[in-house]
Amino acid sequence: MVAFFQSLHKTLAAGVVLLIVLIILVGLISGQFIRLDSVWWTFFVRWLHIMTGVMWMGLLWYLNFVQTPTVPKIEPPEHRAAITKYIAPNVLFWFRYSALATVIFGLLLAGMKKYIVQALTFQPPAYVIGIGMWLALIMAFNVWFIIWPNQKKILGIVNATAEEKAAAGRLAGMTSRINTMLSIPMLYCMVAQNNAGL
Predict the structure, then answer these.
(1) What does the alpha-carbon distance between residue 84 and residue 120 come to, in Å, rounded to a whole number?
(2) Separation of alpha carbons 83 and 68, rounded Å
(3) CA quadruple 175, 180, 182, 186: dihedral positive or negative?
(4) Alpha helix stretches (DSSP H) within the chain
(5) What global pTM score does this model have?
(6) Which helix (H) or strand (E) holds 146?
(7) Distance, CA of 198 to CA of 94 (rounded, Å)
(8) Residues 37-70: tens digit of each pLDDT
(9) Are the C-beta atoms of residues 56 and 102 closer than 8 Å to each other?
């Protein structure tokens, strides 16, 4: 059993199987089985949007609340290399692709719900989610075009001098903090549109 859960792929596959079993059980108990119509597909894209968004925000907050403040405290300093060489590149891979997937699923969902134009142009009734969408788009832009290019310098993926690495660290760190700040109203707007009577 322990060996099974040491594999991320097996764990994810088990999660999908568990989801399918739960869907079937709920269908059997309630007598209402999933109908693969437009309503279900809209729900499914919303679920994917939320799943990828949880990963993106989780990694953003992990970086800002855990990794960034903790790494300078690691003694001796040579041990910090393990973070830079192994953990940070992996975190940043999932960080940027979960941001991309969240945006894609969010735009797809807005298109399926037929409010994409209203949301992106701040028209009622989708102006609140539109604010959230724009904040998320700014954050995703920051991830791909500011944080990641600078992290590549810091991690040694791209050649950079010590001064360039220091400047890249400051810019990436500040932009990550800006994203953390933006995540608070962004998440509020995403939830408020359907749940706060806005």
Answers:
(1) 38
(2) 10
(3) positive
(4) 2-5, 8-30, 38-62, 68-70, 80-82, 88-112, 116-120, 127-142, 148-154, 162-195
(5) 0.90
(6) none
(7) 33
(8) 899 899 999 999 999 999 999 999 999 999 999 9
(9) yes
